[in-house]
Amino acid sequence: DVEHNLYHDTEKDAAIMITDDDDGLRVEGILGDTLRIRPSSVMERNAEGHVAHELFEIPLRHPGGDDAVFDETRHASTSWGRPIKPLSERSDSGFLLKVSPEVHVVIDRAHDKHFKLRSKLMEYLAIFMAAVNLKYRTMMYVDLQLIVTKVTVFHNISEPFITRSDHHPTVMLGETLWNFSTYVGRTEKDFKSDDMVVLLTGMDIGYVNTTTNKSYGLGIAGLTNLGGACGLWTRGALVEDVPKTFSGVVTFAHECGHLLGIAHDGSPPQTYLKGNIGAKECPASQRYIMSPSMGITSISKFSYCSAQQLYIFVGDPSRDCLRNSPSRHSARVSLQRWNKTLVSPVELCKLEYPDRSILGYVEELAGATPALGMATCHVVCETTKDTRPAYLIINAPDGMPCDKTDSNKVCINKECVEFPTNITTLTKKPRDPKKSD
């Protein structure tokens, strides 16, 4: 049965199903982030009658890898001021750094078209940004809240900064980051006062080989410029989001982290970014938000190293744009309001896996150690593969109920906890850019 045949290793991110029947011993499952094993469909049995197997890789959906594009022409003078102290020392003596980066969110047509009413889109974005800021609450040293100062929606007009492929029209080519950053720098009247500008897209970020016309790199979920905040030509970022699923929340926090000078966990010091100390002390394998990849074992918190880098970056005198004190979001968010923006677990599965036949979802995947299910803030989607039961795992979005015995307990940063009473979000109204833009 499923429980006895499923082997799961959380440290190695491995989960395999072993079956022994009349056809022989078969192994199928996950071996780490991108490696998979399955019975071969083309190779025959060997002389002993054993079933041949094959290893294959799948693209990893992540905000990492090459998502931080380096601008080595930027060398700001630096004076790092007071040394960093542990949070326990600084919180008592008032050293906790408060910073409120101003973010302009641009929404493309591919994302906007999934919302029939503009009010629905704006309510989704309000909860989306509240969830992003919940991630920053996990950070040591810094009291940070992203402040959405403007929302621009491209509804029925062209998006001059998006680069597409004729052969893959749903793919947003990585070159779009350069085009978007240039568009932001040149369109002064719309973006002059923005610390960061993020394009939230419903397209799939990736690349296309101009010789073979084959797409690749579709696992990339975001792109940006490391340390690009405040820079006229470097403050842009691209973030994928499957509309209505909140799948882009962690990516949004990750990419804004890059803009604010945070390199990937496990990275050496970024020498072109003056003062950057890197994140060697925080291995990527710990799976915090600034890890180069994310999966079902990821932790929705920032590492100690991320906090250190951000504290240093904000302390750079050249980052004047981060020194003002804009009004923070004050619109309170109740659990009831949050729930209205969430889709059901089954609908979430269908939106995340549109090419799979979703039969439903299960509260807990039996046999997994530790258990995977709503109690651990994982949505287990039920489907089939070769007529056999199969399961697809999604990290549950913030606000999704996780305890059948307590309606106030929901997933927050991938933990099943009481819904916080102090969540706030934006009240801004969107604007439509004119055709002359």
UniProtKB/TrEMBL annotation:
Superkingdom per UniProt: Eukaryota
One Gene Ontology term from the biological process aspect of the record: membrane protein ectodomain proteolysis
Record's keyword annotation contains rRNA processing: no
Key words, A-Z: Hydrolase, Metal-binding, Metalloprotease, Protease, Zinc
Sequence ranges assigned to domain Peptidase M12B in this UniProt record: 99-326
Alphabetized GO MF terms: metal ion binding; metalloendopeptidase activity
Residues at which Zn(2+) binds: 254, 258, 264
Protein name: Putative secreted metalloprotease
Pfam families: Reprolysin_5 (PF13688)
InterPro entries in the record: MetalloPept_cat_dom_sf, Peptidase_M12B
Active site feature: 255
The keyword S-adenosyl-L-methionine is annotated on this UniProt entry: no
Species in which this protein is naturally found: Ixodes ricinus (Common tick)
